[in-house]
Amino acid sequence: MNQKLGLLTVLLLLGIVFFSFIGLKAEHENYIPFQKAISSLAQVENMKVDENSRLLDRNGDLLYEFNSKESRVYLDYNKIPEPVLQAFIATEDQGFNQHHGIDGKAIARAFITNSSAGSVQQGGSTITQQLSRNLFLTHERTYDRKLKELLISYRIEQQLSKEKILELYINSIYFQNGVYGIEKASLYYFSKPVGELSLAETAVLAAIPNNPKLYDPLTNFENTIKRQKWILLKMKEQGYINEATYEKSLDQHIKLNVSQPVVPFPEIVGYVKEELLSLISASPSHKNQTAEELVIERDSLLKSGVVVETSLDPLLQKEAVHAVNARLPYNGVEGSVVIVDHVSKQIVSMVGGKNVGLEEFNRAYQAKRQPGSTIKPLLVYAPYVDVYGANSNSLISAARICEGNYCPNNYGGASYGTVSLKKAMASSINTAAVRALSKTGVNKAFSYLQPFGFSSVTREDYQLASALGGFSKGFSPLELTSAYTTFSSDGVFVKPRLITSVKDKNGKVLFAWKEKPVSVWSGKTNSVMREMLEAVTISGTARDARFAGSSYIGGKTGTTNEVRDLWFIGLTDRYTAGVWVGRDTPSSLRSIESASPEVMIWRDIMIKAHQK
């Protein structure tokens, strides 16, 4: 009977709206066209609402929640506690299980009231109508919107089960303060999942959606409690709870425990989003998409409740952040760190500066700086050793060299004769490096850089000055640190990543990296290079890097012209870590050069890392 009365009411409203409001074209243009709204219901059984996606560290702990304008944690129907369902049915739609989306009696009653008032003053909305309004329409009180709401609601009931309608409703309603859905509301207002709430606490949350501003428990707590008591009364009247439970719930003292969202390492978020773009584009089904299409795909993915798992080590990240801030107390001087685990070939720490906020400029992967002498192992000595079969004791002239108008000098104007490759590396002798690059050949040497995929190397960089770090644009700390991992992988390069997988909320893997190892130089060459890199920390420019706890310590320092950048990229038996120190607007760091902050930051972190 209710269904027939509802349909008759709809037909009556159609006639009234057509004859009474036919001239109000402007009103119709303000809302979603009915046909468009109806068309969107063609696949209504697959209807979804945006939900938060989670970013996790290597231990599975939460780092960040991605959300759109609607912060939501979606709950499937079988995970929604029964008292939640009962509270909303008892107060919002007592005939929910009987009607077909439209409660004819309620509509007729509201229609008479609104006709007398000359405007829409009273609703007769079912839960299904509220759902259609939340998902497809606006909340304006006009006959045009109401008519669409009625017809869409009837269509929803034809295609969805009552359980699915309740599930969508419970997850779509607004709980004030940017919170949508019962689970997120519970986590926000009580700092616990909805399944752990008492009946009294559940009724507090159920009170909010009826008028989120009026019943906001943060600003109108008394109003919220009044409606909470009314909800408990309705639940008792409907037989959902007995008198004893009702009285007990009324007596319970309600104490909010509002969660204060904390992002422990905000600098990670921006990089994860960038890496996720690359991960999606590497998928066969997305390879031909444009950059704009990939961004849309990524943003859509992050609204679907996925879980982004990463290799971030929270303890190492904390130590790295501390080391950068402790060793760089100077105004305007910044630093960045990247750490890669040799075993997993994954990034375990990335610090983009002293105080990098959410999606702010991250110097670890966005800053491109001149590399100084840190480029020598990659561009000069590894290719030279590989081409000529040299060893660390092989000799090379470090005498003055001029190639055309290019006549490089050594640090402090020092002069050398013939030296071993180990000595040339340890003391960072520029003339020896340029001579080695010249003997290998610029084109041949640069071919060794190609597997690393350096984003800013151009043909104009193919010159001898590059042996000393004279590049047109430079490198990011992430790029250089990643390349150095080859020295810990027997000459084989695997690009390190932070994301390990992207899964849907049921645990199905949607995306995961499938990096292919690339052999850059021979294993014999790699052994020679490790010996030379170790010499840098034993007798060379990075002696301060040594500490007890690792069977191997090697690396290379780098200083650019006028001491504008300080670098150290070092290796232990477990990690490769790169540190850069400088100013965002390059200027001299000569006043702090003697403190070797780049080496000391590296050492501080590695000591802690090897105590684990």
Give the structure's gist in a few sentences.
This protein has 612 residues and is an alpha+beta fold. Helix content is 42%, strand content 12%. It comes from Fictibacillus nanhaiensis.
Features of this protein?
612 residues, alpha+beta, five-stranded antiparallel β-sheet, 42% helix, 12% strand
Element layout with pairings:
Blueprint: H1 2-20, H2 25-29, H3 34-39, E1 53-56, E2 62-66, E3 71-72, H4 82-92, H5 104-117, H6 127-136, H7 143-159, H8 162-172, E4 179-180, H9 182-190, H10 199-207, H11 221-237, H12 243-251, H13 267-282, H14 291-301, E5 307-310, H15 314-327, E6 334-341, E7 346-351, H16 376-388, E8 395-397, E9 418-420, H17 421-426, H18 430-440, H19 442-447, H20 477-484, E10 492-493, E11 499-503, E12 509-511, E13 518-519, H21 523-538, E14 553-559, E15 565-572, E16 575-582, H22 590-593, H23 597-609
Parallel strand pairs: 1-5, 3-4
Antiparallel strand pairs: 1-2, 5-11, 6-7, 6-16, 8-9, 10-13, 11-12, 14-15, 15-16
Helix pairs in contact: 1-5, 1-7, 4-10, 4-11, 6-7, 6-8, 9-10, 10-11, 11-12, 13-14, 15-23, 16-18, 16-21
Description:
It is found in: Cell membrane. This is Penicillin-binding protein. The protein is an alpha+beta fold. It contains 23 helices and 16 strands. The protein has helices spanning 2-20, 25-29, 34-39, 82-92, 104-117, 127-136, 143-159, 162-172, 182-190, 199-207, 221-237, 243-251, 267-282, 291-301, 314-327, 376-388, 421-426, 430-440, 442-447, 477-484, 523-538, 590-593, 597-609, and strands at residues 53-56, 62-66, 71-72, 179-180, 307-310, 334-341, 346-351, 395-397, 418-420, 492-493, 499-503, 509-511, 518-519, 553-559, 565-572, 575-582. The protein has a 5-stranded mixed sheet with strand order 2-1-5-11-12, with helices on one face. It has a 5-stranded antiparallel sheet with strand order 7-6-16-15-14, with helices on both faces. A hairpin with a 5-residue loop joins strand 11 (499-503) and strand 12. Helix 4 (82-92) packs across helix 10 (199-207), helix 9 crosses helix 10 and helix 13 crosses helix 14 (291-301). The longest helix has 19 residues, at 2-20. The protein starts with a helix and ends with a helix. Mean pLDDT is 89; it is low at 14-32.
